[in-house]
Amino acid sequence: MTAQPTDDVAVALRGVRFSYGNGATWALDGVDLTVRAGERVCIVGPNGSGKSTLSRIVAGLAAPDAGTVTVLGERVFDGDAGPDPDAYRRARRGIGAVFQNPEDQLVTTVVEDDVAFGPENLGIAHDDIGRRIAEALQAVDMTESRAADPTVMSGGQQQRIAIAGTMAMHPAMVVFDEPTAMLDGAARAEVMAVLDSLQARGVTIVHITHHADETLRADRVIRMESGRIVSEGRPRRDDAARAASADQPHPPADGGDEPQPDSEPIIAVEHVFFTYPGQTSPVIDDLSLNIARGETVALMGHNGAGKTTLARLLCALERPDDGSITVAGVPVALARGNRSDTVRERRSGAAGTGHVRKPRMASRTQRRALRQHVGYVMQHPERQLFADTVAQDVAYGPRNQGLPEAAVREHVEWALQLLRIGHLADRSPFALSGGQQRLAAIAGVLAC
Description:
Oligomer: single chain
Structural class: alpha+beta
CATH superfamily of the largest domain: P-loop containing nucleotide triphosphate hydrolases
Mean pLDDT: 87
């Protein structure tokens, strides 16, 4: 039987404390929280404030170290008795969870199979599962993609599939931990429309977000700092507008110094094409650009526009189908043949006949030289973190480049202080918040 809220209370936390370091520091420190059934609550706060940890407690994915937790009428944790496994199992049947990266929640290569995964694990009758799949896909406007492969969809579509899989379980409550963090504006709007639909159905929503505008439809906004709830109240449009403005980049007061282009650009991309295996249309289509030394460039575009692909090409992590790429004087890729003839062949479709030879890639020695100039921070920092502590992780790059230990320590200290995470040096990178993990990953690149 699926757990349901009792007395109109979906979640009740009292004196909850949680530590990733055996009490050395507290990710949650004396949190009291009540969420009413059908309420839409947004939880905001800076990186490391405890938002994601709180979401895991509420979703029944982690037990605290102290306090009491009641979810959907089940006392799942009592400070004296500890966790109640049976109560957790009952409560989880009524809870859905959606996280930042939709790829991590996809379990099959067919949309309808992915949506069916949750209900099947709940032991729902086969005929009922079919109806739930249809209803959930219709609710997220993905009915026509029922037989499609979700692994090749855009981020917004993948997140809608993940939400559909949660909806198919008919949860009483859904916890969203920054579900739009990896999405562009259009995809964010798609996901927020689904949250509106869930709210209209009476589903309890706990939504962790960094986007101020996403709080406007909430019934209540809770702000966290240093593991504690510091304020709560109704969303206010003027607060959201100020926060949104603060998030926008502002030029220096003096206008800043314009980079002076050298005779040779630091990055040169000439007539580059790239198509992923199994696809017919290129994601990079005859792209040319130059970037000057010292210049700061923002790559913008919708999901699937080719931004990440271009970044990987610049780092020699992908091989272009055609064109030339030079980074810091290193020939990452060098086109073969006459440039105008090759572009004409690409445009006429001759590329698919094998008439166009792929560019010559950098040698091993050239790649080693490239690593001295280029660092790469991926979208998902947890995939770059592997050491026992943040300091050890940051030290890996400079140590791998053969720097003496004294220089390694100097580089690590400099990078940690630059990113203002020196206090996290001895912490496990896997016990950090998503924002702190990003800073640790960037520090590891800068330390090189």
